[in-house]
Amino acid sequence: MVVLQDDTQIDAVPKQYEHISTNTVKHLDGTFTVSSSLIATPTVQMNQKIVQCLIRHAAMKEELKVDHKITVHYPPQLVSVTPFKDLSSAEVYQCEADANPAVTQFKWHSTHQTIPNDAIKTEGNKLYLLKLTSDLTGMYICEASNEYGKGMGSLCWQKGVRTEDYHSEL
Question: Where do the Ig-like domain residues begin and end (predicted)?
Answer without folding.
Answer: 76-146
